[in-house]
Amino acid sequence: MDFGGRYIVAAPRVAVWAALNDTAMLKAAIPGCHKIVWSGADTLDLEIKVNLGVVHPVFKGDLALSGIVPAERYTLTGRGKGGLLGLAEGSADIILADAGEDTLLVFVARGGASGQIMKLGKAIIGHSAQKVIDGFFERFGAAMGAQVTPLPVEPETDPVP
Questions:
Q1: Domain total for the chain?
Q2: How many helices (DSSP H) and strands (DSSP E) are in the chain?
């Protein structure tokens, strides 16, 4: 399953980068986040309660950052276990570019799941995942004190990591 979005963040790119790497900011922005802490130079431990419509599993897992180009891009790769529901995993490319005095943030994610999670159906999971992504960026802007405006996705012109 693929998800993503394009957003204009009313803040300089270096400020957006700093916020994307601030665990207090991320915890405030991630819906259902119980815990997010740096466990290494480029790894985070995460615990999040996910709303999948009919069920609300708590996933415990880890995130790893790779392909890091400071204030420009990185790839997040994560795995989480949701109890009896099974395993979810995914990766996301986050790309930042100047947009005048603001920042263009492009988010491209790929994810999958095993076990009971897939029995809920791709449509429910896809809708829930996109709601989580959109909710994250809305709350991320609020936590930063910066307006975040979603843009239409233009696959042919968006940078591909």
A1: 1
A2: 4, 8
Domain membership of residue 158 (yes or no) is no
Per the domain annotation, does 157 fall within a domain? no
Query: Please, which residues bridge with residue 107 across strands?
Result: 5, 94
Q: What is the pLDDT of residues 99-124, one digit of tens each?
A: 999 999 999 988 766 555 555 545 44
Q: Which residues of 16-47 are buried (b: 16+ CB within 10 A; e: fewer)?
A: bbebbeeeebbbbbbbebeebeeeeeeebebe
For residue 48, give both structure tokens: 């999040």
- Predicted confidence (pLDDT) per residue in 2-28, tens digit: 778 899 999 999 999 999 999 999 999
Q: Cβ distance 104 to 8 under 8 Å?
A: yes
CA distance 117 to 81: 11
Domain with 33, as residue range(s), is 2-151
State CA 59 to chain mean position distance: 14
Has residue 137 been placed in a domain? yes
Chain CA centroid to CA 57, Å: 18
